[in-house]
Design a protein that fits this description.
CATH architecture: Alpha-Beta Complex
Strand content: 15-25%
Number of helices: 8
Number of strands: 9
Shape: globular
Amino acid sequence: MLRGAAGRLRAARGLSAALRPSALARNGGAYVADLRARGRYRALSRRELLATRRSDTVFLFGSGRSLLDVPDEEWRRFADHDTVSFREFPRQRWIRADYHVTAEIDRLDDYARRIRESPLYADTVFVVQRGWLAELPNRLVGGGLLPEGARVFRYRRVSRWRYSPPSRDPRRLVHGFSSGISVTNFAIAMGWRRIVLVGIDLYDHRYFWLDADERRPYEREGIAAADSFATADTIVDMLGRWHDLLRPEGIALEVYNPRSLLARRLPVHRPADDV
């Protein structure tokens, strides 16, 4: 009950902020820019998106500092399968990204520039949030900030700050309590049979591109690098429930880092199981 009440309170606060005149003007401007830019990129249909999947195993990459512990031979093994990135992962130089999911963006111009300049994102399918409240994703597409000629698929985010079973339609992705949940839902909706979460640690706010105890300059006030995620328990619980739901269908939901808090409810990935 407390988790549900907290989620409803956060959702109400988010809606209140979105209805402020300044926010309405920003969201409206971004929404119109996105509408005007239709045709700038190659928009994929649901059928076309699903046809891009090449393997039955997918690796989803977050931005946790545990990525620095992944050996080179493991990155080569990951590359034998499909790969999905989100949030700050475009800062990396390890592996191509077959898909990149965009919703939260911290610094739009820097974020887009890293994507455009990285050869690892030259052939990526960009899965971008749409809708009135998706201000920065709309500006990303509407402003022409993605690589020229990019393939783009748009989705709407649903079930924010509450539990919901995973959607099986990539056009509607459950957000729950974090962007990692919506990216996991994308993998489920795409039909991968083995889904491995890499670099989603939750036990601290340390990231692979920063020094060990360095805070992100845009981190919320009061959060230290050593602090665990405030919503870690709800994220672990929700993905654990999804694991239990998916297992009878023969879909494996796993975590790569055995120290990740997700390992409390998800099995740790074994390379021998890759297909």
